[in-house]
């Protein structure tokens, strides 16, 4: 497949008519991060993205009618600053289009959305071994010192709702 030049890139919101290509790219994203193949995850995510009331949103970057990249994002409250930011959950560029400005265009559009919506920050994470992406991100944003942790949910016994509101 011949990829269009970056100068012809346009970034726009995801549309229902993008489903087939979006699914290809999202599967590619999941493969890149070695996530288990699971079509129910792909379908659930698509449902979120096309539901107007859901908090998840998506942008696509396209050139000459070909979608080359996707970005999933959402607003997130920042209690420590009393502001709301934009969290970039997923960013993926077709491997044949890498290095052509696709990811840059998607991130730059998110920063414009953040400005228009008076958001305080656009934030995202990446794998520490994704050096190609980090080379771009270091040009577009400030690398932070924060370390991310994931904890598995514990099985909860019945509770009265007050357990989550105590002293911290």
TrEMBL record:
<dbReference type="Pfam" id="PF00583">
    <property type="entry name" value="Acetyltransf_1"/>
</dbReference>
<keyword id="KW-0689">Ribosomal protein</keyword>
<dbReference type="InterPro" id="IPR000182">
    <property type="entry name" value="GNAT_dom"/>
</dbReference>
<feature type="domain" description="N-acetyltransferase">
    <location>
        <begin position="9"/>
        <end position="168"/>
    </location>
</feature>
<dbReference type="InterPro" id="IPR016181">
    <property type="entry name" value="Acyl_CoA_acyltransferase"/>
</dbReference>
<keyword id="KW-0808">Transferase</keyword>
<dbReference type="GO" id="GO:0016747">
    <property type="term" value="F:acyltransferase activity, transferring groups other than amino-acyl groups"/>
</dbReference>
<keyword id="KW-0012">Acyltransferase</keyword>
<dbReference type="GO" id="GO:0005840">
    <property type="term" value="C:ribosome"/>
</dbReference>
<dbReference type="InterPro" id="IPR050832">
    <property type="entry name" value="Bact_Acetyltransf"/>
</dbReference>
<protein>
    <submittedName>
        <fullName>Ribosomal protein S18 acetylase RimI-like enzyme</fullName>
    </submittedName>
</protein>
<keyword id="KW-0687">Ribonucleoprotein</keyword>
């Amino acid at each position: 497949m011949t990829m269009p030049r970056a100068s012809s890139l346009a970034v726009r919101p995801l549309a229902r008519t993008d489903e087939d290509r979006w699914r290809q790219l999202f599967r590619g994203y999941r493969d890149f991060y070695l996530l288990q193949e699971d079509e129910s995850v792909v379908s659930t995510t698509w449902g979120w993205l096309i539901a107007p009331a859901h908090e998840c949103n998506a942008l696509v970057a396209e050139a000459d009618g070909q979608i080359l990249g996707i970005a999933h994002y959402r607003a997130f409250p920042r209690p420590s600053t009393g502001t709301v930011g934009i969290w970039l959950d997923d960013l993926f560029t077709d491997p044949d289009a890498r290095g052509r400005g696709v990811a840059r265009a998607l991130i730059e559009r998110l920063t414009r959305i953040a400005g228009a919506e008076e958001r305080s920050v656009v934030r995202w994470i990446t794998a520490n071994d994704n050096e190609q992406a980090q080379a771009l991100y270091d040009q577009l944003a400030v690398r932070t010192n924060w370390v991310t942790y994931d904890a598995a949910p514990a099985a909860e016994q019945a509770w009265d709702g007050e357990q989550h509101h105590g002293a911290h």
